[in-house]
Amino acid sequence: MKVLVAGGAGYIGSHTVKELLKEGFEVIVFDDFSTGKKELLLGGKLVVGDLMDQKTIYRVFKENEIGAVLHFASLIQVGESYLNPKRYYTQNLHTSLNLLEVMLEMKVRCFIFSSTAAVYGVPQEIPITESHPLDPFNPYGQTKYIVERILQDYDRAYGLKFISLRYFNAAGADPEARLGEMHEPETHLIPNILLFLLGKKQSCEVFGTDFPTPDGTTIRDYIHVSDLAAAHVLALKKLLAGSPSEFINLGANKGYSVLEILKKIEEVTGQKVRYIARPRRVGDVPVLLASKDKAEKILDWKLEYSDIETIVSTAWNWHKKTSILSRL
Q1: Which of 28, 180, 189, 191 could bond 318 through an S-S bridge, CB–CB 3.0 to 4.6 Å?
Q2: What is the pTM of this model?
Q3: What is the set of domains in the chain, with CATH numbers?
Q4: What is the mean pLDDT for each group of 10 consecutive residues in the chain (328 residues)?
Q5: Helix (H, G, I), strand (E, B) or coil at 89
Q6: Which member of 11, 88, 120, 140 is catalytic?
Q7: Is 140 a catalytic residue?
């Protein structure tokens, strides 16, 4: 089957493309390379295009017998979404609606959506289950929440089936070091520390050391990107087999504080991490942990790489490799 992967040249999208190809799917990557990287494409047919341009989307569907869509393409920086909400609402909502309109026109009814734990807002219970109230408090999370509501309405009215996968903290890199994070700017904790150790960043900053946690820093649920990719393929297979629409968390249900991550990075790299303590960022909550029970039950999902040792070591191998290549 041919599947369209929107944003397939991004961090999670590229790992999922690798998994799809391994599972025998014929992949068409649709990306405008505003954030995606051609270096992260390991195969499939590439279409360079902007999801804001619906004519290009129509052309891709008309030229290919697409059976399903996986949608990763969106703006994802929480801080930027506070500063420029118009850009986030315009981009994230219009691109999703354009894709969905073409899908309905071409009678494609299988949609995997890249969502986020940000739809939950401040957690009222830990771990967070899919039945937790939805109350996103930043524009980025709001855009994902709105698309999820649209998907529910499209399922009811048009029979478009979807699985919305709500990520917690994606981390790590392809175990073969062929893929990894290449964000510009980089906002994630683990790659920022590793880039600092490699001399690619001038400082290592910890935002907030006075949270009500054992060591005063925030605790997050880290999930390896290869395990995320595997979950997308499992979700796609479920939908193609006739399963109903679902909202599913993707996390490890195990938390690590910022200082625990720092310590693990020191163990893996053999280097001391000297950091600068900064004030808390707007919107940061003390603890975010996911319940993975539904993912295990519905998708038969099993974590293979999401222990913190593997997450850090695969990320370190990737960033060392890209650092060496950048100097050649």
Answers
A1: 180
A2: 0.95
A3: 2-171+223-250 (3.40.50.720), 189-221+253-327 (3.90.25.10)
A4: 97 98 98 93 96 96 96 90 94 97 98 96 94 94 97 98 96 96 86 94 93 96 98 98 97 96 97 95 88 97 97 97 66
A5: helix
A6: 140
A7: yes
